[in-house]
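Exam prep: given the inputs below (a chain plus adenosine-5'-tetraphosphate), describe the expected output before reading on.
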Amino acid sequence: MSDTPKAFPPRIFSGIQPSGGLTLGNYLGALKRFVQAQDDGTETIYCMVDLHAITVWQDPAKLRHATRELAAGFIAAGIDPARSILFNQSQVPAHAELAWIFNCVARMGWLKRMTQFKDKAGKNAENASVGLFAYPALMAADILAYHATHVPVGEDQKQHLELTRDIAAKFNHDFGVEFFPIVEPVIEGAATRVMSLRDGTKKMSKSDPSDMSRINLTDDADAIAQKLRKARTDPEPLPDTLDALAERPEARNLVNIYAALADITPEDVIAQYAGQGFGTFKPALADLAVDKLAPINAEMSRLMQDVAEIDRILGDGAARANAIAQPILEQCYDIVGLIRAAR
Ligand code: AQP
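Solution:
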């Protein structure tokens, strides 16, 4: 191998699980930034990671609905299927095939350190699926099947991306190649970790049992306003510095959400609302959230009236994704020493 690392052309990949409805966390931490990346002109590939979703039981009819609704969410938020490749993971076999290779590269000890597995499996790890444990190797395959270089994600995915880098580096080292890029996580903005509205120390999540803990992109204006009004906070007014919010996670979370929705910094929010109580701040935040989310909600409903068109878009995206991933998979098989009949 040469001393200078091989330069891979910039290519962005990211995905979201159709494991429920989209939340404000998915929107601010991921989707909104996917749109910015697309609009910046870099090649962008976005995936509904349905194979990840089934690492925990999914009702088949609900999974189909959630996958289509997620696709509608991507498009309603601004992803243009002509400019970005948009598809569902299971339609491109390279993801699962490369994941097997990576299962053989990743070490048990690496996967055992993954906090998401510990969080999701909880005390019942013996009963969790093997898929849930191996999830990060599939995630590495999702990204590396495209030789993607940059991955916009929320803060919770940082550890999985470090593992993706470790897998790429070990594969390259073990086979003496510079075949897989060492990807860069892109974790930016005011809302890289949107917290639950009921508990400022827990991530807002689509699978949280409490619907009041999150804002769903399908929530109507009344539901959004009600959830924000009831969001847990403290009795103090907003301070005049961000540092003073260090021990007030719920207040900090609402400030971050406001900043991300308004495309301003949390400092700007503090400058505007210092000294104001939540009686003033929460309704202002609710108005802003409704203003930004209502058009997405309306467009998602419109798109969901024609699921055949959504399926067509996903099929078209899958064909384009496959055209990139299949040759990379084949080269990987060659490197590993797996015989392929000449076609
Ligand atoms: N609360 C969040 N704040 C910021 N970003 C978030 N993301 C998720 N929750 C937040 C980002 O959204 C992308 C897609 O995530 P995912 O659906 O693939 O899986 P997840 O991170 O496990 O999301 P959930 O909502 O918590 O799903 P469940 O409940 O099914 O596990 C990622 O970029 C993630 O960082």
